[in-house]
Write a structure and sequence with these properties.
This protein has 254 residues and is of the alpha+beta class. The chain has helices spanning 3-11, 14-24, 38-53, 99-112, 158-163, 177-184, 194-202, 219-231, 235-244; strands spanning 59-66, 69-80, 85-86, 134-139, 145-150.
């Protein structure tokens, strides 16, 4: 993950921390009072301001909490760039991949109930993965890359989904043949249901042998589909009932 994406992911956590701070009525403190470098804090704020100025980031809410005290809490840039409305400290963000730990937490609840296990093969819940192959790039007689399908050496498990060692990818690598198949098959068509998307995914080869390689990919999407199968409920409903409502996360929804 590059610096820009890491920064955006970090800032996306602000909604959770703001809710936490609000609920606990945390006191404010200077960075130095809680053992945070005031110089580093200033550098962080300047970096975010710089990205807003360059147009790399529309805006952000920065919060740093340490020792149950709010050391930094600032709204920077714009909530809406088009009409120049300023960012607010309680602005709501799309949290993107922060849904991954929420989904995983729900899966861990099912494990506590004995309905899932780390060692369970994915195909136990999603039979469409029973015959999945691994796409290995090899040179043909003409010196061109082609995909050779090989049987997986081990079954993809729930643990592989949780730690992104499933062999799945996101289709971002331009020159990788499996990634190209993701794009050609339009896996990220917004009209697809999660069930439809995962069935299309299961018909494509894996990029790596399960359990051998970490790659940030569609593992959590598959885990989310397993939650639907096990719970018998749509993912958004299941997460709302098990995680969001119990934790009072009233501003978090699909």
């Amino acid at each position: 993950m590059n610096c820009k994406n890491y920064l955006i992911a970090l800032l996306s956590l602000q909604s959770f921390f703001y809710a936490f701070a609000n609920a606990q009525v945390l006191p404010n403190a200077s960075p130095n009072m809680v053992g945070i470098s005031a110089e580093k804090a200033s550098q962080l704020k300047n970096e975010i301001n710089s990205r807003v100025t360059k147009g790399e980031l529309p805006g952000a809410v920065l919060m740093v909490v340490r020792n149950q005290k709010i050391a930094i809490h600032e709204a920077i840039g714009f909530r809406d760039v088009a009409d120049k409305s300023p960012m607010q400290k309680d602005s709501i963000f799309r949290i993107a991949s922060m849904t991954k730990p929420i989904t995983t937490a729900a899966a861990l609840q099912l494990m506590e109930q004995g309905r899932l296990s780390l060692e369970d093969p994915v195909a136990k819940f999603l039979p469409e993965f029973s015959n999945v192959k691994v796409g290995v790039e090899k040179l043909n007689d003409k010196g061109n890359k082609e995909l050779v399908l090989e049987a997986p050496l081990k079954k993809m498990t729930i643990q592989d989904l949780m730690r992104h060692t499933s062999g799945l990818t996101f289709g971002w690598e331009e020159n990788a043949l499996v990634d190209q198949l993701y794009k050609e098959n339009k896996l990220f068509n917004a009209d697809l249901t999660l069930e439809e998307q995962i069935k299309k995914l299961a018909a494509l080869p894996l990029k790596y042998q399960p359990g051998t390689t970490w790659e940030y990919g569609m593992s959590t999407e598959v885990l989310g589909r397993i939650l639907e199968v096990v719970s018998g409920k749509p993912l958004d409903v299941f997460l709302d009932e098990t995680i969001l409502t119990p934790l009072g996360m009233t501003d978090t929804q699909f």
